[in-house]
Structure formats: C-alpha cells, structure tokens
Specification:
The structure holds two protein chains of two kinds. By secondary structure, chain A is α/β, with parallel strands linked by helices. Chain A has 13 helices and 20 strands. Chain A has two domains: 313 residues, Aldolase class I (TIM Barrel, Alpha-Beta Barrel), CATH 3.20.20; 95 residues, Alpha-Beta Plaits (2-Layer Sandwich). The chains are: A alpha/beta, B alpha/beta. Bound molecules: flavin-adenine dinucleotide (FAD), flavin mononucleotide and iron/sulfur cluster (3 copies).
Chain lengths: 419, 458
C-alpha cells in the first residue's frame, strides 16, 4: 500500500484531500462527519465579520443529461457567529487531532483586523490559515474577496498582515478572475505566504429562464453574478496551477482547487505541481462518502505504478508544460481510422469536412460497404475527428516517424538570427 | 436457437454452444451504465442484495477507473461475487430495487459486477489477506458457495480452515451444477483459488461418510461446518424409470461442465420433467447438445413454476416448448430397453394443499402417449439425509435444523449453512443466499471464539 499522506507547507495530512472552504465545512457537525468518513483535512467556511445571505443561492449547469457539469453560487462567507465557529473548531480539532483544520479568513485590508482574526483562530488550534482573497460576488462589492485578489499590491499587503500575526502556515487563496495568475501568486509569495491555493470561483451566470426571463438562480426576480466551480472549471484551474508551478520565480507549495471530482483529477493536479487538493462541488453533489474512492483509487494507482509515496508525483509533469514557442514544429501526428471498430456514424467526416482540413473520405469497398479513410498527407493532426468520435479506439492519432530533427519556433528564430 | 442448432453437430460447434452465452460489457458500455447510476445514498439496491454489496460504491469505482477497488468492494461482501454476477436473479434482487425503475431503466448491476470481477480475474489480482493465526481450527464439509464463503471469512479472521470436498474439484454447484453457458467453470475455480490463497486447505476427493467421519472431525477441530448442499434429482416413482435414455438433469449439466458433450442427444426428442431452474437448465443443455425438440412437462401451470423469469425467457428463446398441467405416468420401452414413449396424463389445479399452493389432480381419462427418445428428470433435489443423521443432527426431512441467529445445529459444535438448511416450498435456492449464510456462519463462529482467542493473543 502506497503512502498517501502529505506534508503541505509543513502541515501534515493523512491524505491529500481537504474539503474546500464552502458549505461542506460550515459547522463542526459537518466537519466531524467528513473526518469520520476519512477526509484528510477541512478548510473551514470563511470567517469574518457578520453578513447576511439570500435565498436562493445556487445554480448548476447540467450538460446533456449529466447533472452538475458546473456549479454556481452567490453565497457569502459564514453567516454564523464567529464565537460559535471558534468553539466548534476547537472541539473538532480536539476530537480529530490527526486531521487538518485550516481557518479561512476574510476581512477588510486593515492590519489590526487581520491580526485580531488570525490570533483568534490560532488560539483555538488551527493547523493553518487560508486567506480568502477570491470570493467574486457580494464580498467583492465591499472591497473584500476578489476585490483584493485582483490587486497584486493588496494581495501582498494582506498576506503580510496575516503573516505578521501568524505562527501557523499561511495559504493565500487566489481568484481566477484575473489575466495572469502568476502575478498575484508572486505577490502572495512576496507578502511571505507559505503556500497558495487556487482557484476560487469564476464569475458566471448560469442561465436565463425561458418563460420568466429571470436569471438562474434568482432572488425575488433579480440575479447577480455568481462564482463558477465544479468539473467544468478543472481545465482552467489545472492551467493556473501548472503556470505557477513552472514559473522559475515561484517556489512555494500550491493547493490545487477547482473541479477535482475523482482520484484521477487529483493525480493530474499533483503531477502539474499541486501539493494536495481541495474539493467542494463533488462533495456537495454526492456527500462525504466519495472520500472512499478518492483515497483507495489513488493508492491503487500508485501501487500499480510501483510508486511508494504520493509525494513522489508532485510536479512530475511540470517540465512537460511549457510555452507554445518551445513546441516541435517538425513533429507530425495523423489520424488513422480502425474500420473494424468504427460504427460508421460519419461524425469525424463531417467535422473534418466542414470545420477542419477536408481529409476524411467516405468510401465504399468492393462489397458495397461504407468505410472511412484519412488522407494522411492532408491531415494536420488536429485531433478533432478523434474528439468527436463516439467509439473508443475507432480513431488512433499516430505519431509519424520524424523526417527532420526537432525544431521549435524559438530555435527557428534563433537560427534565422544566426544567418 | 433449436432450429439453428439442428444441423450443427460438429464437435467444435457443440463446444461453442456451451461457451458463455452473454457477452461481457466492453469498456464503453460499462462506463455509460456506470455513469448513469445515481450513486444513491442508503441505496435500495444494497438492501435488496442478500450479501449487501455496496453497489453504488462499486459502480462509482468503475466510473472513476478504480477497477481493483471496484472488484474488492464486490468480493468483500460476496466471496462468490463473480459467479453471482452471472447467476443471480437480478430482476428479483438488486436490479428490481433500483430506483431508476421508477424513472427510466434499472442499472444493469449484474453486468457491471461481471465487468469489475472479470477485470480482477484477467489481471490476476489477489484481493484479500489472511488474518493472523489465532490457533483455532475449523473443518468445513462441502466447498460450494456456502462452504467457500465461510472459509474465506474465517481465514481472514485468522482461523486455520480445512475444507473436505467429495468431488475432484471445489466450487460445488458453481463448478459442476450451473450450466457452463451461464457460468463457465473457470469463474468458479477463480473464486476457489482466491480462498486457497488465504491459506485454506481444500482436500478434494474426501467424502464425508466414506473417506472421513464425523467423529474424526469432532476430535480434531474446534468447530465443524456442514455445507454439503443437496443431492441428486429424486426418482419419479413411475414404471420404466430404469430404462436407458433417462437422465438426471444435474448429472447431465455436470458432464457438459467437464467438457463431455453427449452425442446421444443429436436430433432427438427430449422431454424434461419439472419446472424449476434445474429443469430449464436440463432443457437448454439438451438443445445445445443438438436435440431436435425439447419439451418441459410440468404438472402445474406457468404461474406456479419456480424458475426465475430470466431463466424462463432464456429457455423460450432457445426454442424450448412447455406443456403445462401434464404429468408422466409410465415410460415405455423399445426392444432394446430404451425409452421410446411416455404415457402422460393431464392435470387440473384444485384447492390449496398443505403448503398453500393449489394441488394438481389428474383428470381421469385424459391419458395420452408422447413419443420421446430421452427423458430428463428435474423435479428438485433429494437431501443428504444419511450424512446428516451420521452427525446426529436434528432435521426436518433432510433439512438440517439450525438456530437462525447463530447457524448452530442441534449439536453445539456443528454449524450448517447453504442448501443443506434450505427449507422446502420456499422458491428456489440461490448461490447468493448460500454465500451470505456462509459469512454469517463465520461471524457466529468468531463470536464464540473471539474471547478465548483474545486471551491467547495476550
Ligand atoms: C441445476 C441448478 C441450477 C441452478 N441455478 C442457479 C442460478 O441460476 N442462480 C442461483 O442463484 N442459484 C442456482 N442454483 C442453486 C445454487 O446452485 C445453490 O443454491 C448453491 O450452490 C448452494 O450452495 P451450497 O454451498 O449450499 O451447496 P452446493 O453448491 O451444492 O455445494 C455442496 C458441496 O458439498 C459437497 N458434498 C456433498 N456431500 C459431501 C460429502 N458427503 N462429503 C464431502 N463433500 C460433500 C458437494 O460435492 C458440493 O461441492 C442452481 C442449482 C441447480 C441444481
Ligand atoms: C456554495 C459555495 C460557497 C463557497 N464559499 C466559499 C467561501 O466561503 N470561501 C472560499 O474561500 N471559497 C468558497 N467557495 C469556493 C470553493 O472553496 C472552491 O474554491 C471552489 O468551489 C472550486 O472547487 P470545486 O470545483 O471543487 O467546487 C465556495 C464555493 C461554493 C460552491
Ligand atoms: S438542500 Fe433542499 S432542503 Fe436542504 S437546505 Fe437546500 S433547499 Fe433546503
Ligand atoms: S466518428 Fe468514429 S465511429 Fe463515427 S465514422 Fe468516424 S471513426 Fe467511425
Ligand atoms: S438504486 Fe440504481 S441508481 Fe441507485 S445506486 Fe443502486 S443501482 Fe445506482
């Protein structure tokens, strides 16, 4: 059995799975249920000054019969009294000393307010502090959340305030609602953060009701943009994690968040540089019991690969993630159709014919049976046909034997300059 | 299928007829269905499985690609989970309870279970480990689903287990009795192998009452489990039963399981007597051996037949004909002592008998003659009454009496589970119930010894 425990910025966790700061970590009752089920840690629902919530709060993007491809909310931070939360954190930590509790905090960017709150949560025994600089709705209109997270100078300053009072590790949670995550990530680093976590939710509107013309969700006929999360945001989050991990000027741990639903997603985030992951939507969709497959699947995967500890995979794919200008222009891939597996839906043909490079021919064999064939000379290896193909294994993308040595745009430009 | 097979009698074709009839899911089918499962909380499908497999969990694991975890979840609850994936009457159990019956279409739980366990078989996975030896020894007689299940659980709890099996191979009816085109022998033997890998010793060719005796077991073991199932098909009790051309359905299936395909069925007219699953299996086996025409004769009607719906469907698709309210009275011989005809009589159903079922009664004067070449008897199974008595156990017509809570028989050292305790008139016996009883028996044994075992460990 592989070792799936992690040491994240000095915080030891029995497994890489933490519940993200959100409704699943709203109360001691819930966090204790999660720990009982086997979660490695929980980032408590963000604490701050008292707020009021609205109903309704959530919306979801269902895609072709699969529920919750994406999820959206206009919920604010914790609406329970700080004292109650602190008491429950204390009790929960006492009951589960080996599992991780991180306090997520959000106050205005004022030194005293941060110091005061950091000290309060430290006093009840949290293992770390997460700064919520990412909530994109509501709180941002009051100068908090993503209103801070979108300003590198405020990110740095807030992180610094927290660090001044903190004795436990400080994790700065970043908003994806920016142009280049590396800028705010490095601002956090500059402010002294021990780690960053990403991503918080993305600005979004789920939809508009075709009969009432109301937004989805709506509050008494009106809506406001919410934060998007769930499986749909995974590629966005994965890129942001990878971008930070491959930046030579960035060297602190990253907690990967955004659409993690399975142990497979987890492996991908960790390969791309995450030291652990946080999960919200998947737990909200299925309950805490998903932790069973998350941990077992990860452990079986590592065993199968002969890897002793999950720590060994952290960042293993980072060196493969680079700039476009470093990609090999001489590498050639073509599509090849396996006619024995193909079910002749012709989806690949029409996709290529109408929207790519017109190189999949619809043919008849000597018995009058339809078959498809790729004209490999014209194929640009775009992957489109294999993406639309509904049958596993019907289209292979084949690496052709290189006829010329690798040549990237950067190398080419350099060579031209030499001339 | 009957028509199709008539002319196909080459040996390799016969062999093909006995290969597993239903193809397994490919990956895409499995993923499509797995992703359709709602992953219900407190799911009714779990409750409907006699072994309580955590069905949503094993299906979720197929969807996530955690195949080893999926197979482990199944086999954890059901030591013969690969066999059950094929032979359980799922419409009446898990799939019948699936919540999607009320909205769209039930999840094909059996097929998904087969997909996951097939993965474990193909990838030669060892899913469980033996517990630390606790010094207690248990003898189990019979290596069918009940015996295997008891053995596996006891081995995991640290007991030293020896199984005594009269046949040359273990697995009971899974290995020898359930038709190979539904349950190939290799599947049952893989499950046997999984149990052996936990250090359980299976001593085949050891028949209780012949090669080993009750006293020896009492002397050498801390507990004895009787899991010998039921026995052969009973006699019809009519004239001509000794003629050639009369078969016992269970023997017939057993021979095909061993790869012997009786040439004597090709192009012949076969009458199968009975209407339980054994009769269906006898009939479909006859078809696959190349019989020209196969009829099932039953003295009651379609409504009373005990075979599962899917079995009945399967037989109809194979081209088996049914003659309801019909009973054989006499078998008629040709010059060589072979059956050539059967005198039958029509029946009618009258007010309920003792067991609450309506009683079939002969209609006088309705006798008629049916031409047959082969008669297959499938009117249930007899009991191992002699062995049960050699143990000195209380029984009810060969059904061993146990305390349902503890599986303990009238002898406090002897436990019994599986078909050997299967009561009469309560439908059909099932592999899955035998497996569950095996688990319960193991737990009951452990409850008895747990305290003393702990003392030893201290
Ligand atoms: C033809 C047929 C078809 C069936 N189809 C299905 C089906 O589709 N689905 C389903 O769920 N169930 C089916 N069943 C029922 C199922 O097979 C049984 O309920 C199940 O096998 C019972 O398990 P068991 O371990 O109690 O007994 P068995 O499987 O009968 O095993 C008993 C074992 O004890 C051994 N034994 C007996 N006497 C002695 C002795 N004196 N010494 C040593 N060993 C001995 C036997 O050789 C055998 O290996 C079918 C049964 C039959 C007969
Ligand atoms: C209903 C809801 C409430 C949330 N509340 C908070 C919050 O209070 N603090 C915070 O840092 N993130 C909050 N988040 C964001 C999550 O912590 C997480 O970053 C995001 O949902 C992405 O992860 P996921 O795709 O696994 O859901 C919330 C998310 C949801 C869905
Ligand atoms: S899940 Fe449904 S019942 Fe529960 S709080 Fe939300 S709206 Fe109410
Ligand atoms: S999309 Fe796939 S299945 Fe459909 S025609 Fe093309 S290769 Fe065949
Ligand atoms: S009841 Fe049906 S949908 Fe629900 S968990 Fe069971 S198999 Fe899946």
């Amino acid at each position: 059995m592989a070792d799936i425990s992690i040491n994240f910025a000095g915080i030891k966790s029995p497994n890489p799975y933490w519940l993200a700061s959100a409704p699943p970590t709203n109360t001691g009752y819930q966090v204790q249920r999660a720990f009982e089920a086997g979660w490695g840690g929980a980032v408590w629902k963000t604490l701050g000054e008292p707020i009021l919530n609205v109903t309704s709060r959530f919306g979801a993007h269902h895609f072709n019969g699969q529920r919750v491809a994406g999820f959206n909310n206009i919920e604010l931070i914790s609406d329970r009294p700080l004292e109650v939360n602190l008491k429950e954190i204390y009790e929960t930590k006492k009951l589960y000393p080996d599992q991780v509790i991180i306090a997520s905090l959000m106050v205005e960017p004022e030194r005293e307010k941060w110091h005061e709150l950091v000290k309060k949560v430290q006093d009840v025994g949290v293992d770390g502090i997460e700064l919520n600089l990412g909530c994109p709705h509501g709180m941002s209109e009051r100068g908090m959340g993503s209103a801070i997270g979108q300003h590198p100078d405020l990110v740095e300053m807030t992180t610094m305030y927290a660090k001044e009072a903190a004795i436990v590790p400080v994790i700065t949670k970043l908003t994806p609602n920016i142009t280049d995550i590396r800028v705010t990530a490095k601002a956090a680093l500059q402010g002294g953060a021990d780690a960053v976590s990403m991503i918080n939710t993305i600005n979004s509107l789920i939809g508009v009701d075709l009969d009432t013309w109301n937004t989805i969700p709506n509050v008494n006929g009106k809506g406001a943009h919410g934060g998007y999360c769930g499986p749909a945001v995974k590629p966005i989050a994965l890129n942001m994690v990878g971008d930070c991990a491959r930046d030579p000027g960035f060297n602190i741990p990253i907690s990967g968040i955004g659409g993690v639903s399975t142990w497979q997603d987890t492996v991908e985030f960790m390969l791309m540089g995450a030291g652990g992951v946080q999960i919200c939507t998947a737990a909200m969709h299925h309950g805490f019991r998903i932790i069973d497959d998350l941990t077992e699947g990860l452990s079986n995967y590592l065993d199968e690969k002969g890897i002793a500890s999950v720590s060994e995979i952290i960042g293993a794919s980072v060196e493969k993630y680079t700039d476009w200008s470093n990609l090999d222009l001489n590498h050639k891939v073509v599509a090849r159709i396996n006619n024995d597996i193909c079910i002749n839906c012709n989806k690949c043909h029409i996709a290529c014919e109408d929207t790519s490079h017109q190189c999949i021919d619809m043919l008849k064999d000597e018995n009058g049976n339809n078959y498809l064939k790729v004209r490999e000379d014209d194929c640009v290896g775009c992957n489109l046909c294999s993406i639309v193909c509904p049958v596993d294994g019907a289209i292979d993308m084949i690496d052709l034997t290189p006829t010329e040595p690798p040549m990237s745009w950067n190398k080419r430009e350099a060579a031209i300059k030499m001339l | 299928m009957g028509n199709l097979l008539k002319n196909l009698i080459a040996d390799d074709v016969l062999k093909q007829n006995f290969e597993e009839a239903k193809p397994s899911f490919n990956q895409q089918e499995a993923l499509d269905e797995a992703n359709r499962c709602l992953y219900c909380y407190d799911a009714p499908c779990i409750t409907a499985c006699p072994t309580g497999i955590d069905i949503p969990s094993f299906i979720k694991k197929i969807a996530s690609g955690n195949m080893k975890g999926s197979a482990t979840t199944i086999m954890e609850s059901n030591p013969v989970g690969a066999s059950c994936a094929r032979v359980c009457p799922t419409e009446e159990l898990c799939e019948g309870a699936c919540v999607l019956n009320h909205s769209t279409k039930a999840i094909p739980i059996g097929d998904l279970q087969r997909y996951a366990t097939d993965w474990a078989i193909k990838n030669e996975q060892v899913l469980f480990q033996a517990g630390k030896k606790n010094g207690k020894r248990v003898a189990i007689v019979g290596s069918g689903p009940a015996g295997l299940s008891t053995a596996r659980e006891l081995a995991r709890l640290g007991y030293e287990v020896t199984i005594f099996e009269k046949k040359n191979e273990a697995g009971g009816l899974d290995t020898f009795g359930i038709v190979p085109f539904r349950l190939p022998k290799e599947i049952a033997l893989w499950e046997v192998g999984q149990v052996e890998k936990l250090g359980v010793e299976i001593r085949t060719n050891m028949e209780l009452g012949k090669d080993i005796f009750a006293d020896e077991l009492f002397e050498n073991y801390d507990a004895v489990v009787l899991a010998i199932g039921m026995s052969k098909v009973p006699m019809l009790g009519i004239v001509g039963e000794e003629l050639s051309g009369i078969y016992d359905a269970i023997d017939l299936v057993e021979r095909t399981k061993e790869g012997h395909y009786d040439a004597g069925f090709r192009g012949k007219r076969v009458a199968v007597i009975g209407a339980g699953n054994t009769a269906i299996d006898g009939a479909t086996t006859s078809i696959r051996l190349g019989a020209e025409n196969v009829k099932i004769l039953y003295r009651r009607t379609e409504a009373e037949m005990t075979a599962y719906d899917f079995e009945y469907e399967f037989a109809k698709q194979d081209g088996v004909e049914f003659r309801w309210l019909t009973t054989p009275k006499r078998l008629i011989s040709d010059e060589e002592g072979h059956v050539k005809q059967m005198e039958c009589v029509k029946m009618e159903l009258r007010d309920s008998g003792k067991d609450g079922r309506r009683r079939p009664v002969e209609i006088t004067g309705s006798e008629f003659i049916m031409d047959v070449d082969i008669v297959v008897k499938a009117i249930g199974q007899t009991r191992h009454t002699k062995i049960i008595e050699s143990f000195g156990l209380e029984h009810d017509g060969g059904v061993v009496k146990v305390d349902p809570e503890s599986s303990i028989t009238s002898n406090p050292k002897v436990y019994a589970c599986g078909d050997v305790i299967f009561g009469k008139g309560v439908g059909e016996a099932m592999v899955v119930s035998a497996a569950q009883q095996g688990k319960e028996t193991a737990l009951s044994i452990h409850e008895r010894f747990n305290e003393s075992v702990k003392e030893i460990a201290l």
